[in-house]
Amino acid sequence: MNTKVWKVDKYVDNLVNNPQVVDAAHFLRENEVVALPTETVYGLGGNAESDEAVAKIFAAKGRPSDNPLIIHIADREQLLRFVAEVPAKAEILMDAFWPGPLTVIFKKKEGVLSEKATAGLATVAVRMPDHPVALALLKVCGLPIAAPSANSSGKPSPTNAVHVMDDLNGKIAGVLDGGATGVGVESTVVDCTESVPVILRPGGVTKEQLEAVIGEVRVDPALTDEAAKPKAPGMKYRHYAPNAPLYMVSGTREFLQGLVEEKRQEGLQVGVLTTVENVEFYHADVVFACGRRAELETVATALYDTLRRFNETDVDIIYSEVFSSTGVGHAIMNRLQKAAGNKLITE
Ligand code: TXA
Ligand code: MG
To answer: Closest residue (by CA) to atom 21 of ligand 1?
Structure first.
């Protein structure tokens, strides 16, 4: 399959009449799959009401069929077509954070969406992305669009169109290239089917921000307890992994540098994932600065691109600094833990 690349400037007016957006929407209406930019990561979109389109999403990514997709919408009225009830707290969250990096889980209305999209569950995950190109595409095609991150399953999520093409060229109808995404980590997934909402996946909206508008919010125990079964099926899979084994290192930079030297003496090529503040400190084969530690949002923005850049080097092993788990650090550490398969070295 020849994968089209449609370049779109997200700042131009009247994106709903943009020929690239209109062409991409046409493919979606034909039940083809198209990658699209969002404010978090690129998504791989397909008609959520079509088994045919949804099957193409799973096939292109190599995604396990028990892992349900997030349904993307451009306006709130679309919700009522496929959601059975909208709890009061969900209403408040949507008012506060949509469009934006928050996915809300509702009880599903049966018989509207493809069963494959929801992996046969009684619930459905929904979000309204805060990206002008995504919103224009959703409006023009007029369909609810199922869209997981547009990477091959297991790889870091894509934050630009080159990442998408690296993984999916030849496997999808096209990619709308709207430039680099901003937030860099995926949306926060919140289950609103229980009286106290539960975070199933930390993401772009922090627990603190959620609690500021709805009060108490719980965190799925599986996020901290490896033995517990996660409520978001996708959270049980290893993800985001670079090719070389990655270790998180908790300790001083001198301690991390010591680990680097040990491995180099064994003849290995060693990579270090750090931030702008410490990049000059380390001596290794490859040292990448992933944003600024003092502004964790910049670490989130750069994380997946940094993990992917290690694959363009010859490193045999990667050591990463760790971050505080507050605010967006919760999502950063969750993704790093997955990328590292939980391997942590403590001083
Ligand atoms: O920021 C994002 O959310 C991106 C962009 C493209 O919108 N999308 C994304 O989708 O990250 P994906 O498929 O990579 O992750 C969706 C997560 C998975 O962990 C999945 O198991 C969970 O949401 N999920 C989806 N539907 C669910 C449901 N009904 N109940 C529990 N978890 C659900
Ligand atoms: Mg994903």
So the answer is: 234
